[in-house]
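REVIEWER CHECKLIST
Item 1: Sequence provided? yes
Item 2: Single chain? yes
Item 3: Sequence as submitted:
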Amino acid sequence: DYDLSQLQQPDSLDPGLVKAPGIRRVDERPIGAEPQYPLRPTVPHPGDIGDFINEGLRAADNDPTAPPYDSLLVFDYEGSGSTAGSVSSLNSSSSGDHDYDYLNDWGPRFKKLADMYGGGEDD
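Item 4: Structure as written out by the authors:
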């Protein structure tokens, strides 16, 4: 059996609980009356879970007051001084003066990158 209560929307959501650490949000609630929705019945049979999810998705997509609101995200830390280095040297260039063949030595996890920049074989 599935616990469908985990899929139901909470009656209220404390905005302080949805903030990620290190990110300040400046949210503005839409101006206007809150839409009133009829109560949704509980799902009588587990086989109806797809309909239940699709109904919730339609309600969320058509609700102009549902978070996330239009907001400005302010990132205080952008990772300068990272030991990972920079990828700024991988800018697009049509001059062909860069040698990216070493990307082929990085293994299968980097095959797509090697194909993009190293001129590897396309699948």
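Item 5: Key structural point noted by reviewer: Residues 49-61 form the longest helix (13 residues).
Item 6: Recommendation: ____
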